[in-house]
Amino acid sequence: MTSPRGLPPDLWIKRDDLSADPLGGNKIRALEFLFGDLARDDRVVTVGAAGSTHAFAVVTYGKRLGADVVVGRWQQEMNPAAARVAERLAHDADAAPLFRNPAFAYAWAWREQLLGARWIPAGGSTPLGVLGHVNAGLELVAQIDAGAMPQPKRVVVPLGTGGTAAGLAVAFAIAQRDIIVVGARVVPRIVARRGRVMRLARRTIALIERATGTTLPHPPAAGLEVADQAFGGAYGRETDAARAAAARLATVSSIRLDGTYSAKAFAVALEMAERDPTLFWLTFDSRILSGS
Question: What is the pLDDT of residues 132-159, one digit of tens each?
Fold first, then answer.
């Protein structure tokens, strides 16, 4: 948790990029549960865009656990961070084709599943994976209660497949905290819709209730907002606001943001922090940009 000088005084940053080694970020939260029973020599298949940080996280930790990992990727509009991730993926993942669009990648992944591969959905956004983000939200509540920061009015996260936003909304409902989750949309609306995120939250609550035999509160309708203005018109396309926000953060800290997700969310957080106490949830681990 940090609040760098030179930024709005009511803006805080949750350093989820440091959540694990050698790679942190929000995707690791989901994999803690999705890889809970992964065995050595299992074959894992997932999909994502050419510069997908989710795919890179699956490859990184799947291989560390001894699994074979294949990734069906599709072409995307590139920015410098995405290009570096794509380079790392091409080097580290087992051989898999680069498709023209997601439909071909999903069809290929379906055939891999028929051959016995374990399926990890894009973004890890299933109720089981979302449990990791529920834990993350409860972790934040504990940090607030311990005095690490005041309770924010809003928590801003990038909104792609929706797992992080759904899990945080569930966590704040469980903890009975009046904190609004703001998803900065970075993908087309057909994927990142408010209704889709809320359904994922409800399915996650149902999973917890089945496992525990308890009844949980649901996130209120006003507990989730979508910032559509963050989207650049195509996945991976940088925006002027995101570039400016990333540059501003770089002048007051060592934190580096990516043009696909985190810079867009940070631009939204900067704007909201001028009005209300706001927490920016840093989901991108810039260590991915360096090393072999």
Answer: 999 999 999 999 999 999 999 999 999 9
Residue 56 lies in a domain: yes
Amino acid present at 112: E
Rounded Cα distance, 219 and 172, in Å: 7
19, 52, 125, 286: which is the annotated catalytic residue?
52
Q: Does the pTM exceed 0.85?
A: yes
Q: Is 52 annotated in the active site?
A: yes
Domain contains 4: no
Q: Which domain holds residue 82?
A: 31-123
What is the C-alpha separation between 149 and 177, in angstroms, rounded?
A: 14
